[in-house]
Automatic annotation (TrEMBL), chain A:
<comment type="similarity">
    <text>Belongs to the universal ribosomal protein uL11 family.</text>
</comment>
<feature type="domain" description="Large ribosomal subunit protein uL11 N-terminal">
    <location>
        <begin position="17"/>
        <end position="75"/>
    </location>
</feature>
<dbReference type="GO" id="GO:0003735">
    <property type="term" value="F:structural constituent of ribosome"/>
</dbReference>
<dbReference type="GO" id="GO:0006412">
    <property type="term" value="P:translation"/>
</dbReference>
<feature type="domain" description="Large ribosomal subunit protein uL11 C-terminal">
    <location>
        <begin position="80"/>
        <end position="150"/>
    </location>
</feature>
<keyword id="KW-0689">Ribosomal protein</keyword>
<dbReference type="InterPro" id="IPR036796">
    <property type="entry name" value="Ribosomal_uL11_N_sf"/>
</dbReference>
<dbReference type="Pfam" id="PF03946">
    <property type="entry name" value="Ribosomal_L11_N"/>
</dbReference>
<protein>
    <recommendedName>
        <fullName>Large ribosomal subunit protein uL11m</fullName>
    </recommendedName>
</protein>
From TrEMBL, chain B:
<keyword id="KW-0489">Methyltransferase</keyword>
<keyword id="KW-0949">S-adenosyl-L-methionine</keyword>
<keyword id="KW-0963">Cytoplasm</keyword>
<dbReference type="InterPro" id="IPR050078">
    <property type="entry name" value="Ribosomal_L11_MeTrfase_PrmA"/>
</dbReference>
<dbReference type="Pfam" id="PF06325">
    <property type="entry name" value="PrmA"/>
</dbReference>
<comment type="similarity">
    <text>Belongs to the methyltransferase superfamily. ETFBKMT family.</text>
</comment>
<dbReference type="GO" id="GO:0005739">
    <property type="term" value="C:mitochondrion"/>
</dbReference>
<dbReference type="InterPro" id="IPR004498">
    <property type="entry name" value="Ribosomal_PrmA_MeTrfase"/>
</dbReference>
<dbReference type="GO" id="GO:0016279">
    <property type="term" value="F:protein-lysine N-methyltransferase activity"/>
</dbReference>
């Protein structure tokens, strides 16, 4: 719901750019360079801004960032934390999910892992209004599509 | 070696010709032209029935260079229905694209299709990725697309074109080298922005320049920790410092800073640049170990510590926290130290880390960015 003022002063959008950049590692090289350079956006400003905002993440976690480039060469961007599947793979220490999810179990994780992942995800702009319990439920759902079983305690 | 890449595409194309009922338009324009260029005597393997638009063919083979900055990349232009563009670009990202760009085209309302321009690393298999993505989204046919290898010089030039002279404060301008200074009598810093940080437009550069203006009275020795394009070191000299040193871990930054110093007629007698190793322990301990790895590593002599009157470090939160002792060790007791590149919300963390080392800490802010300044404690610790 945008206010009238926002609608009137909305700048015309030139393009929407999606990128995957390692946290704290944005450089004016491909893929950031060509994607942003094409719309004459200030590469260095983006790199500095992005790196500063991702300082709290472990270096080199792949963050997905969506940039809205406006026609006057300015831009805005939102950074999202890495995908749940990436976190699950890292927590389990596996390279890829099970080849036959539902039939073949790749690995197991404990509820603690899910809880930790849910806490990180809650700081995402899109998940802030969800209760921790519902975030956990959705993570467990994603885990089952990858063939990862969730148990109460790992022994 | 770049030819190998195209042959791979060729075999996929010919094998899928047998199953071409699914994909009605499977277009590789660059392929035939290139193949014809290379070996005009051979019969083209692609049947003449396929009409290949040559609008986006590219003719020059860009030579892959070793540095990742100029490494070749694949740029793919895909046409797909408008309503699934968002989902499709997310799917592409999951399956291997480094980036996807969707153009907002207002005058394209009549047609149903939209263009997605995607960038892949050179080693990625574009066809597999696109077909997997189309599959996961629910598209019945693979959308048409064109592949070309990206010309890296294009985007570098484009970003450089967008720089204009910037007035940081009254009487101080930062001017790109290809523009004329709007005010010839003001202090003008001429820059070639290049690929190193520091063009004068960013709030943190501004904060640091304003701080420098207050701190430099004349004759100081200045250290720019993380110099980037060298802008702060050059500015310090213009404000009246006697000697400026810039250090950085990025060789590109050092080259850029050297170039910019030359543009401002600053010689090596009052301006020096050093490339330092990027491990966090002090250079004097590790320099013997690393000296084989670094090509142009110049050791910072032990006597350099505690000799600078003003130090500014415009980097990022984590390096500032890790290198706190190192940064402060270069200053003489009572020297002024400025820290930036931090967001306003990160300031408490920095204050925590630096309060045992600095007195009189003050914070200035522009937009979301902050700059901390303090004086090194007089009693040694």
């Amino acid at each position: 719901m945008s206010t009238l003022k926002e609608i009137l002063t909305r700048r015309p959008v030139a393009a929407t750019i999606r990128l995957t950049v390692p946290a704290g590692g944005a450089r004016p090289a491909p893929p950031v360079g060509p994607a942003l350079g094409q719309y004459r956006l200030n590469l260095m400003a983006f790199c500095k801004d992005f790196n500063a905002r991702t300082q709290k993440y472990k270096p080199d976690t792949p963050m997905s960032v969506t940039i809205t480039a406006f026609k006057d060469n300015t831009f805005e961007f939102t950074v999202k934390s890495p995908s749940v599947t990436w976190y699950l793979k890292k927590a389990a220490g596996i390279e890829s999910g099970s080849s036959r999810p539902g039939h073949l179990v790749a690995t197991t994780l404990s509820v603690r892992h899910i809880y930790e992942i849910a806490k990180i995800k809650q700081s995402d702009p899109y998940c802030q209004y969800m209760s921790l319990e519902s975030i956990c439920k959705s993570i467990i759902g994603t885990a089952s599509t990858m063939g990862i079983k969730v148990v109460k305690d790992l022994d | 070696m770049a030819l190998r890449h195209f042959f791979k595409h060729l075999t996929i194309l010919t094998s899928s010709y047998g199953f071409c009922t699914l994909s009605s338009r499977f277009i590789h324009p660059s392929l035939t032209t290139l193949f014809n260029n290379i070996n005009p005597k051979a019969q083209p393997l692609i049947p003449a029935k396929f009409s290949l638009p040559l609008s986006h063919c590219y003719t020059s083979l860009s030579h892959p260079s070793t540095s990742t900055l100029l490494s070749p990349y694949l740029s793919v232009r895909i046409r797909c229905p408008k309503d699934i563009a968002d989902v499709f670009s997310e799917a592409l990202m999951c399956f291997g694209a480094s980036s996807t760009t969707v153009d907002e085209d207002d005058n394209c309302d009549t047609s149903n299709e939209i263009c997605i321009e995607s960038i892949f690393p050179e080693s990625e298999d574009v066809d597999v990725c696109i077909s997997l993505a189309a599959d996961s989204v629910g598209l019945k046919m693979i959308p048409s697309y064109e592949v070309k290898t990206g010309e890296h010089y294009d985007w570098i030039k484009k970003t450089q074109e967008s720089f204009d002279p910037v007035e940081v404060t009254e009487g101080l301008w930062i001017v790109p080298v290809w523009k004329t200074p709007p005010d010839v009598k003001a202090t003008n810093i001429i820059l070639n922005p290049g690929l190193a940080f520091g063009t004068g437009e960013h709030p943190t550069t501004r904060l640091c320049l304003l701080l420098l203006q207050r701190l430099i009275i004349g004759g100081e020795r200045f250290l720019d920790y993380g110099t980037g394009s060298g802008i702060l070191a050059i500015a310090a000299l213009k404000f009246g410092a006697s000697f400026s040193v810039g250090i950085d871990i990025d060789p590109l930054a050092i080259t850029s800073a050297r170039h910019n110093a030359a543009l401002n007629d600053i010689g090596p007698e009052n301006f020096q640049l050093r490339l330092v190793s990027s491990n966090t322990s002090s250079p004097s301990a590790d320099e013997h170990k690393d000296i084989q790895e670094q090509t142009s590593f110049e050791a910072v002599a032990e006597s350099e510590h505690e000799t600078y009157d003003v130090i500014v470090a415009n980097i990022l939160l984590n390096p500032l926290l890790e290198l706190a002792d190192d940064i402060v060790s270069y200053a003489r007791p009572g020297a002024a130290i400025g820290l930036s590149g931090i967001l306003s919300e990160q300031v408490p963390c920095i204050i925590d880390r630096y309060s045992p080392l600095l007195d009189n800490i003050s914070v200035s802010e522009i937009d979301d960015w902050a700059c901390l300044s303090g004086k090194k404690k007089l009693s040694g610790n």
